[in-house]
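User: Structure tokens for both sequences below?

Assistant:
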Amino acid sequence: MLDMGSTSPGNIRFFTDRGHKNYSEDLLRSSLDPALRVKDEAGNLVVDSKKFLDENLAYPNGHFDVVLCWNLPDYMEESLVKPTIDRLWSVMKPRGVLLAFFHTRDAGPDSTCYRYHVTESDTLEMQEVKIAPPGRPATEKQSPRLQRVFNNRHIENLFRDFASIKFFLARDAMREVLVVR
């Protein structure tokens, strides 16, 4: 199983106690690495999505049964979202399951980004994520900015190569999405 949030000892313990091998990739933090920035044709600094994927999610095809994507697409830069989801499709086994959360409405620039910790089979604990913006000292940590709010059609398009998708309305203006490869 792949947990796409920062390392969570609780999640590792929860899943390994149930016999699962657990991998963690903090893709949100990795996507903010200044070394990934290149200039586009207009001279603007943009994220090099190829380099990002070469350095992250470097697993063999069909490696994972489960991916916990959490709320990553809402906070990740637009240019990385679709390539990341496409890579996840590749590294997941057929009939593998992906769990993602999406905001149902724009919470504004001051929305809080959370890291999720599984505490029981039906309970998650939330912890605020704070990251120093690129080029800023570590002491200036803040919650990452909500980049966008996906509507259902956008989410369906994002996962269009997957076999099925189910939406569930969750608490706190969040949508829970279960996707099967």
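Moving on to the next sequence.
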Amino acid sequence: MIIKTCGLREPENIKAISALGVDWIGLIFYPKSPRFIGEQANLQAFLQQEKNEEGSPKRVGVFVNAEFKDVWEAVQDYELDYVQLHGGESAVYCATLQQLWKDSSIRKAGIIRAFRVSRAFDFGITVDYEPFCDYFLFDTKGQEYGGTGHKFDWDILERYTGETPFLLSGGIGPEDAASVKLVKHPALVGIDLNSKFETEPGWKDAQKLAEFLSEL
């Protein structure tokens, strides 16, 4: 199972979380998020060095309705492996990004399309995205873009019959390892962990995360 820890931004904390063996780390490029990475020269320098270390986690940049130029530059500057689209990005937007990677001889990134899920969510809207996305991410729907820290009803995942693998997100906390193991959907390949493991926005409790991973 892919373990993604999102909302990291401090080199010391990233190093501690990476040492736990998580598969992906998430860096948020949405300025309105309390976990926005901002302009940190020390972060870029750290990531440049860390990328060369064996077994370092893959990097996911999280964007909300960003300009193509901003996404493209972030992929190059932060050596991102994936971009996660967490706004209202259309399938055409995803197709355009995919074409940008094909046209560029520089770094390319996979695409993760996040969907904000409620009980009324129509999983049929994911069909148009399937040709352009490597993964989907199902998160809890809130009033604003970004995470809510709350779960949605995981039973409704049964309505997803697509072929694109997905990560489960939304309010997964230290006490939820047993519940996660009960989700048997064939397309579920990973989980996204964020606010429930924080001591403050952008700083994860490595001990809590280690205990959760051990139980999982």
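User: Anything stand out in the second?

Assistant: The CA atoms of residues 44 and 78 lie 6 Å apart.
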